[in-house]
Amino acid sequence: MAPLPQNEMRSFDYFHSGFRFRQTRSLVETDWPLTDPCIENSIADERETPIIIPTNSRRLLRHVAILASLATFTVASYAAADVSSSSAPADTQVAQTATPAPPPAAAPAAAAPAPTPAPVWSVGSVDLSGYIDGYFSYNNNRPSNLADGQTNQYYTFDDKTDQFSLEAAKLTLNHDPDPVGAHLDILFGRTNTLIHTNSPGETATDNYIEQAYISMKPPKAKGFELDFGQFVTSAGQEVVETMSNWSYSHGLLFSYAIPVYHFGLRTSLPATKVWTIGAQVVNGWNNVSSNNGGVTIGLTSSLVKPKYTWNTNYYVGPSNVDTQKSYRNLIDTTLLLTPNAKFNWYVNYDYGQNHTDAAAAVVGVSPKILEDSPHWQGIASSARGQVTANAALIGRYEYFYDDQGFATAFTSKQTLQEFTGTYEYKWPAGLLMRTEYRYDWSDHAAFPRGNTAMVKNQSTVTVGLIAFFGPKR
Q1: pLDDT, tens only, 74-123
Q2: Which of 461, 353, 376 is nearest to 137 (CA)?
Q3: CA distance 64 to 81
Q4: Taking a C-beta distance cutoff of 8 angstroms, is the pair 322, 359 a contact?
Q5: Are both 89 and 137 inside the same structural domain?
Q6: Does residue 92 sit in the same domain as residue 148?
Q7: Residues 85 and 196 both lie in one domain
Q8: 79-103 b/e with 16+ CB inside 10 Å = b?
């Protein structure tokens, strides 16, 4: 998944770390007056006292005085720099070695206090990072008496409504492969509950792992990397972590078109300077233990250019009871456009098909549906504009078609659409706020209203607050 491009006009350097402010000052050149107020009386009485210094000479003297003042200020600045150079940060001292050192100050450098090291969120060679994500959501349908409480229909992770909720609390431990590394994501909250709801042999109460894998990157393998364990899927533009997406709520394609994670092997290899390819051999979709004895194959491709990024992923393998016939296919592609530093736009398309067999009896589903191999497809488009150094506006539209209600667990074919408008504000101390309005609609009455009514649409307003840290600030 392509990371968000950097924006040189913003006040921060990296999306997950601290911020750098830049202030610009403008010097306005002002013309000196032709007459000097200090000698106004002499000029007024010029009939009696002639002017000794011509006007041009006075200008020359003034400019000489100004230049002398500037020279004095410059000398004083260099003198102050000599005194403070011994206590400069370590990275500043390294940069100064490229130029001749100024004369030593009167006080010896050894007497200066030791430089204070920059704070690093790490334990030894393991970097630490994490975040806490909470929100409040309001649904104009005021749904109630649902099996899972008051929820926004067709939402993921931030689906609780008319209440304050914890979407996720996450702690990450990471050691980059050199040549062996490891990565662990410990996850709590509503996000963890939904990720592990349908995992065979697992429940959310005893599994708080989002990712856990070891990495190997041989030094002479030309960038080849191999991961083994549990890792998030390569499909889709959006990811599990809300703060790494553009909108606060996760879209329809993330929720219903693609898997969330896999367990198995994952590889990547730079084919050229701008093109990276990879292959995966995993147990299936959203599970650690396979329930069919087969494996799913994944093929990945990522082309990264200065003005655009194009990612394509393909997954195929058994994800049902019948290993020989019940294959699931997914084609996922995303084009991310980065024409300039203030505007970005992406288009994400997914097509999935789940071949099933009538011999695999499913309660409540007719044999015809099982033999028809249901398929689904959707497209998402989102644009992001940076309006100030700390604020951004985002718009997202999605269209999702499920020909038999397989992906959305609906009773028949369904077409879903949604539009989301988001305002984002970022503080430099590791705090992010998003306020958004989202409107969902369907060609069927699929959204609960009140206790019993079902309608074709819903409107929600959500305010999310995310505090994050690390690995370095």
Answers
A1: 444 444 444 333 333 333 333 333 334 444 444 444 444 555 444 567 77
A2: 461
A3: 26
A4: yes
A5: no
A6: no
A7: no
A8: eeebeebbeeeeeeeeeeeeeeeee
Residue 257 and residue 277 in contact, taking contact as beta carbons nearer than 8 Å: no
- pLDDT tens digits for 148-198? 568 888 998 888 888 899 999 999 999 999 999 999 999 998 888 888 876
Mark 20-35 as b/e (b = at least 16 C-beta within 10 Å).
eeeeeeeeeeeeeeee
> What is the CATH classification number for the domain harbouring 378?
2.40.160.10
End-to-end CA distance of the chain: 24
Residue 283 shares a structural domain with residue 193: yes
3-state secondary structure of 94: helix
Could you give the percent of the chain with pLDDT greater than 70?
Answer: 66
Entry field: residues in the chain:
473
As a whole number, mean pLDDT of residues 328-352 equals: 97
SS3 288: coil
**Residue 141 DSSP one-character state:** T
Q: Between these two residues, 97 and 142, which has the higher pLDDT value? A: 142
pLDDT given at position 7: 39
Question: Is position 15 within any domain?
Answer: no
- Residues sharing a CB contact under 8 Å with residue 182, sequence separation 6 or more, in sequence order: 173, 174, 175, 213, 214, 215
Domains held by the chain: number: 2
Q: 224-230: which pairs have CB atoms within 8 A and are 24 or more residues apart?
A: 224/267, 224/268, 224/269, 225/177, 225/267, 225/268, 225/269, 226/265, 226/266, 226/267, 227/183, 227/265, 227/266, 227/267, 228/264, 228/265, 228/266, 229/263, 230/261, 230/262, 230/263, 230/288
User: Is the same domain home to 200 and 75?
Assistant: no
3-class secondary-structure state, position 90? helix
Tracing tokens 């589903």 back to the chain, one arrives at: 365
pLDDT tens figures, 358-393 = 554 455 555 555 456 889 999 999 999 999 999 999
The answer to whether 202 and 213 are in contact (CB under 8 A) is: no
The Cα diameter of the chain in Å comes to 122
